[in-house]
Amino acid sequence: MSNATAVSVIAAMITPALLILASASLAASALARMARIVDRARALAAGVHDRSWDKMAATPEMFRGWLERHEARARYAESSIALLYAAIVVFTATCLSIALDRATGGALAWLPVWLAIGGTVLLLGGGVWMVAESRLSWDQIREEIDHARRRLGGRRPMSYTPLDPKTAVILFADLQAGIIELTATNELARLRRAVAALAKLAAIFDIPAIVTTGPAEGGPQVAPEIAASLGELPLHTRTTTDAFTHPPTHEAIAKTGRKTLLIAGVATEIIVQHSALSGAAHGFDVQVVIDACGGVSLRTEDAALRRLVQAGVVTTSIASVAGQLAADFTQPRGARALGVVYEMASG
Description:
Elements: H1 3-12, H2 14-50, H3 60-103, H4 110-152, E1 168-173, H5 188-204, E2 209-213, H6 224-230, E3 235-237, H7 247-255, E4 260-266, H8 268-281, E5 285-294, H9 298-310, E6 314-316, H10 318-326, H11 332-346
Parallel strand pairs: 1-2, 1-4, 2-3, 4-5, 5-6
């Protein structure tokens, strides 16, 4: 082989060598990201073992979601690493095939071309997986920042958007005979008036309503105030204390496509609290209509409401909901909404 031929072979091998360096650099980055994912997943797993979500004002559902996201990130990073290592091997083989092609007088001209194409595809695939993992990483960071901001409470810059009937859905939870009477923090008659008012507002502003109940002998008897305004609605009877852990109820809420969830129910400490926390963890803007709820004791209801506020859930009232929905009470629907408040207040 002449000097000129040797130089041309070496020059031809430079391009795959550069691609090897690029693949190795991306592989190193993917390995570093995998290490961070593993460290964070281990910290979350330790938190689950220590049941430390209460200290973080989080919920088991939030921890489960974070762990699932880190599992997906680890899969994406592993796929990227595997493809990038394969690209390094193929590009190395490309270098060797160039030398073999020259040594055989061009008999293997097709080999380096196909190897280079294969290596490039692998390199592209590894990059795509890294992009996917980066998007999940950003989603995780954004959720953790939002959670930290909710814990800071009033320190977050003030923002306010009135309740929009087009984005709202109402959950009536366990407002049924045998349970509604357990209210000890809200007089039963007042609670019934508030439930009736919320149902009337739903009818006025075309807000979908979901009714979830606990099991009862002979079937649950739902508070008649709901049907008086909205007619007979489907009942989603659960055996859980959380509407979102009952697939039919969760699906009914999700199918509405609405992202602002108003909750009314008994007891505040049980179905209302757990459903509100899960709703927030599933990305809903949750508002608990406090005068349409009842707790089993003042102390336990207060503890539940404090936990909800720490988790970013909003506590509201019939008057506040009606005022936001009414917007302009000189308009027909606004005037009717105001009338609902007056009617409830007058008893």
